Amino acid sequence: MLKQGSVEALRGRVAPLEMSPDDFREVGHQLIDHIADFLGSLPARRLGPGKTPAQIRTVLGDASLPENGTPADKLLEEATNLMFDHSMFNGHPRFWGYITSSAAPIGALGDLLASTVNANVGGWALSPIQSEIEAQTVRWIAELLGYPSDCGGLLVSGGNAANFVGFLAARRKKLGADVRTKGVNISSTGQPRVYCSAETHTWIEKAADQFGIGTDSIRWIATHDSQKMDLAALRQQIEQDKTNGDTPFLVVGTAGSVGVGAVDDLPRIAALCREQDLWFHVDGAYGGFAACLPDAPPELKGLNEADSIAVDPHKWLYSALEAGCALVRDPQDLLDTFEYHPTYYKFEEEQAAEEAPINYHNYGPQNSRGFRALKVWLGLRQVGKNGYIRMISDDIQLSEHLYHLVEIHPNFEAFTQNLSITTFRYVPSNLATGSDETEEYLNTLNEKLLTELQNGGEAFVSNAVIGDTYLLRACIVNFRTALEDIEALPDIVSSIGSRVDAAIRSEYLKTQA
Q1: 120-371 classified as CATH 3.40.640.10
Q2: Does the structure show a pLDDT above 60 at 513?
Q3: What whole-number distance in Å separates Cα of residue 50 and Cα of residue 222?
Q4: Residue 221 in contact with residue 232, Cβ under 8 Å?
Q5: If you ran DSSP here, which 8-state letter would residue 478 be given?
Q6: What is the pLDDT of residue 351?
Q7: How many angstroms separate the most distant Cα atoms in the chain?
Q8: Can you give the pLDDT at residue 352?
Q9: What is the dihedral of CA 67, 70, 72, 77, to 10 degrees?
């Protein structure tokens, strides 16, 4: 029974979170105006706030949870100022750090639309059009990569999650159905073995750790000087493990390594996996989408031979975070890996229909799922395949031009250029090189230079390490970057490098003497 007086209070209820259409329209228009102005101002802004964690926390304050609410217009105004004054802007034309792209404006609008409808894309009955748009998006991504369009797949949070899906599908397929009920039984199958290059992203360690294989199961295969996997070493390790009674089940090829953008010889790895009856997974989170280019390297074209692929639309499709995508050649492998039938889901009763719907909770680890696909779908429709070919090709050409600029500059040493990643280091022209002490100094100098560059707000690059050499690394996955931005970088870095070198060289070399 309702308490006395509650009936009238609940009749025609208006909750504190509700907004009238007119109120929503007013604050929404104001927010869109602010966002539009922000996007137009990006090139003139600093890339980041250049503040310490303590300074940022001071801006936010340490107040307790408020007892009462604040009007939405004031809150959005405050949040807008916080975002625009204290963020790192990966949408800035001179952001080339890590592998986070500028986000397409249409995707931001798509996220607003998706959040407004708020569909749960775990069951078709809860998300009919959303599920079909996701399925179409998966097919289009497969087509863009040259992968079979009848594959299975789904949108996930990013590269880690997409790679996890491939890992789990491989575990179920190659270690058997009992792995889902009994776990990994080393006493009967021997130690499961996973093979990847020494340049593989750390997702593989997380997967081996979290999914019962253990990180000791990973065989880190050496790379050539090109940072590509040594296939002779791979074959030798697989055969040795089989002789020792272990169970090899998965080989991971990399299509665009994090550090230098190296692409393993995917066709030859695929052939070896077929020969040895191993699951072939490709981590293409960064470089996979370059397979769409007419002049893509033949190593990358082997992507279409994989049993599973991970790609990140929030990298080289310029989608807003979060948007990863897992593709698996045989959709049944996803169902065999993830499908369960709890009594509280009525969705499975629909499977008897002539045209069975897709219930995505059966194809991946999530039950409740947001509508990530909309922003990707909108981008694919806005520019089409040719638009992405043009933008990805532009990014690569800009990276190649940067390599040329640092190669001819007297204060730089160019190291690598793969896909859209260029690595180099600052080397003062008046510094005698060649000794171990000098190499140690150059590592220290470039590390301090990078910190100054990132805090300075003029441009943002990250780092790579090849052997014992610390390098600056520019990764261009940014449709806002133009030639003049690339041509400005050497002088910016050289100026900072000269200042840092003058401040630390004599003291550093004195302490090493």
Answers
A1: yes
A2: no
A3: 38
A4: no
A5: -
A6: 53
A7: 88
A8: 53
A9: -120
pLDDT for 507 equals 77
Strand positions, DSSP E, 168-285? 192-197, 218-221, 247-254, 279-283
Query: CB-based contacts of 475: which residues, under 8 Å, 6+ apart?
Result: 96, 97, 98, 99, 261, 286, 399, 420, 421, 461, 462
CA distances from 299 to 223, 267, 397, 504 (A): 15, 6, 19, 44
Distance of CA 369 to the CA centre of its chain: 18
Q: Six-digit token pair at 505?
A: 């060289």
Strand stretches in 332-433, DSSP E: 412-418, 421-426
pLDDT tens digits, residue range 450-459? 999 999 999 9
Pairs from 146-151 (Cβ < 8 Å, separation ≥ 24): 146/291, 146/292, 146/301, 146/303, 146/304, 147/303, 147/304, 147/306, 147/309, 147/327, 147/329, 148/304, 148/329, 150/331, 151/327, 151/328, 151/329, 151/330, 151/331
Answer yes or no: is pLDDT of 89 > 80.
yes
The predicted structure's pLDDT at residue 278: 98
Q: Give pLDDT tens digits for 156-189.
A: 999 999 999 999 999 999 999 999 999 887 767 7
Q: Where are the domains of the chain?
A: 21-88, 120-371, 385-512
Q: Which fold has domain 385-512?
A: Aspartate Aminotransferase, domain 1 (3.90.1150)
The percent of residues in the chain predicted with pLDDT above 90, rounded, is 88
Does the pLDDT value for residue 44 go beyond 90? yes
- The pTM of the full predicted model, rounded to 2 decimals, is 0.94
Going by DSSP bridges, is the β-strand pair 308-311/324-328 parallel, antiparallel, or unpaired? antiparallel
The values of phi and psi at residue 52, to 5°, are -80, 165
* Token reading at 439: 């190499």
Residue 354's pLDDT band, with cuts at 50, 70 and 90, is low
CA-CA distance, 321 to 313, in Å (whole number)? 9
Residue 98 region by backbone torsions, left for phi larger than 0, else alpha for psi between -120 and 50, else beta: left
For tokens 């793969």, the residue is 418
